[in-house]
Amino acid sequence: MKLLKLSRTLKEGFINFRRNGWLSVGTISVLAISLYIVSFTLLIGYTANFVLQNIQEKINITVYFSPEVKQERIMGIKEKLAGFSEIKSVDFVSREQALQELEQLSSRNEVIKDAIKEVGGNPLPDSLVIKANNPDQYEIIAKAIENSVFRDDIININYEQNKREIENLNKIVNLIKKAGMGLGIIFIFLALLITFNTIHITMYSHKQEFEVKRLVGASNIYVQMPFVFEGIFYGFFSAIISIIFIFITAKYISSLSQKMLGISSLMPFYWSHFWILFGILILLGIILGVISSFIAIRRYLKV
Amino acid sequence: MIKFEKVTKQYSDGYVALQEINLFIDKGEFVSIVGRSGAGKSTLLKLIYAEEYPTEGRVFFNDRPIDVIKRRHLPYFRRNIGTVFQDSKLLSKKNVFENISYALEVVGDSNEEIAKKVPKILDIVKITDKAFLYPHQLSGGEQQKVSIARALIHNPQVVIADEPTGNLDPVSGWEIVQLLMRINKFGTTVILATHNKSIVDNIKKRVIAIDKGRIIRDQENGKYII
Predict the structure, then answer these.
(1) Does this complex have an ipTM over 0.90?
(2) SS3 B55
């Protein structure tokens, strides 16, 4: 009996949804945009956290030594630093290694290649690359090195630059997240309004059926459920469309990140979170649709 | 069966549609409610099927006051009452069979039950041969027969007909009334609101006359006199 009621009201809801034609298209579009904005914000958030983690793992303090300092002394400093509990690893990068790495990185960059030729010889210093156990500890380590007994041997410590870049990246990402959420809320509100309006129009165009239902004693389920299902259809199809567009956006972000940040493809990361995002969007879409229906039902049906 | 106890109905704009109505309609009766347009006939009927509520007084159905029925129980109450109107209120995109089966679908009847009940009722109103035609393919009289069939589909205790012959020619109108009388013979209470004098005079049943919201005459075997 309940299954019969459900199937009849589902059928009626679907017929209403289909019959609305371009109105349904408009409603789904607005809903899809709202869901896209919300999921885009989530995507940026996920990506930023992932990328930041990646970058943070690559953070290090590089200590550049002046050319007069002998390698044996640098090795001694390395041994000393390795003894600190905050330091995970210390690697020595000789000037020859540094030049090789630069030549490899700049193999397609004619300007740098020419610059190296122009300078002649190897302008690069020996360095120690230090990794901390915890990114929060870089500050302490950097300060310790600046105040150490061998501070006069050092020509540069590049921790500060990385730190600034990471802080800037964090600020940009937080700004995008806030703007995204703000825009998302506005669009969700708009989507609710438009879906509510569409369902109201459906109700109006079914005035005849309503009257008959009321007169013959149709229970509230038969009166209300078709509209609830209509709302669900709007939400569901909007979610599907927004998922497709998010997937396209994700591919674009992944390739952009690879080019700009030099990290590996993000697609495996996205795929691992696909079902969660899919579930969230479908649920959100359906909830929005149902809320709109209930508001329309409360306002316009004498139930 | 239906009792009006000192019922007054005043609308929000101040218009008083009914004043101090005291009325009792027993089970199985055939009652004609007559009066000029605006006398209060339709309002009286609306109070019976709870489309409106009295401002003062109470309406009882089978000794139970209608105003205590909760909103969510109203659909079940309304299944006791079949309604027929001047405009037949048929769904234009459904054929005759579908119009009647719709009334059964929305109360949860199974497809098997519908397949049994609808042909029976089509037979009672004698419109079986038009079962798959659409409303626009029917005459006014035929449309009203379908409307009556739909009103009867839940085996109601009462059939309320509000000016069912208003849009019909005299012959078709009389056919409809004869159908209502036949239904009444089987025990269904019929309340017919009309301002068709010849029909009322020919029925020769109880006549209640309303004028300016008051009952001015209530006669068994009455005639149309206002």
Answers:
(1) no
(2) coil
Q: Are both A80 and A135 inside the same structural domain? A: yes
CB B18 within 8 A of CB B7: yes
pTM: 0.69
For A4-25, what is each residue's pLDDT tens digit? 888 888 988 888 888 888 888 8
Q: Inspect the interface and report whether the beta carbons of A217 and B71 lie closer than 8 Å.
A: no
> Do A37 and A69 belong together in one domain?
no
Residues of chain A scoring pLDDT < 70: 1, 55-58, 106-109, 116, 120, 160-163, 166, 261-264, 301-303
Which residues of chain B does A1 touch, with a Cβ-Cβ cutoff of 8 Å? 108, 110
Do A98 and A149 sit in the same domain of this protein? yes
The residue to which tokens 């129980």 are assigned: B73
A141 within 8 A of A86, measured Cβ to Cβ? yes
What is the per-residue DSSP string for A215-229?
Answer: HHT--HHHHHHHHHH
The distance from CA B133 to its chain's CA centroid, rounded to whole angstroms, is 24
Domain endpoint, select from A108, A135, A159: A159
Question: Which residues in A lie closer than 8 A to residue B156 (C-beta atoms)?
Answer: none
Confirm or reject contact between B103 and chain A (CB < 8 A). yes
Rounded-to-integer distance, Cα A57 and Cα A73, Å: 28
Q: Is the dihedral of CA A109, A112, A115, A117 positive or negative?
A: negative
How many helices and strands (H and E) does chain B possess? 7, 10
Nearest-angstrom CA–CA distance, B33 and B208: 5
Q: Are the beta carbons of B106 and A222 separated by less than 8 Å?
A: yes
A228 and A198 fall within a common domain: yes
Q: B106, B157, B162: best mutation site toward chain A, by most A Cβ within 10 Å?
A: B106
Q: What are phi and psi of B205, to 5 degrees?
A: -125, -170
Q: Are residues A175 and A41 in the same domain?
A: yes
Residues A30 and B129: their CA atoms lie apart, in Å, by 49
How distant, in Å, are the alpha carbons of A17, A207, B80, B127 from that of A212? 20, 9, 15, 20
Q: Of the candidates A159, A174, A190, which is a domain's last residue?
A: A159
Residues A79 and A228 in one domain: no
Residue B28: per-residue pLDDT: 93
CATH number of the domain residue A102 falls in: 3.30.70.3040
A263 secondary structure, DSSP code: P
**Per-residue pLDDT tens digits for A149-174:** 888 888 888 876 566 776 777 777 77
Range of the domain at A77: 60-159
List the one residue out of B171, B220, B216 whose CA is nearest residue B34. B216
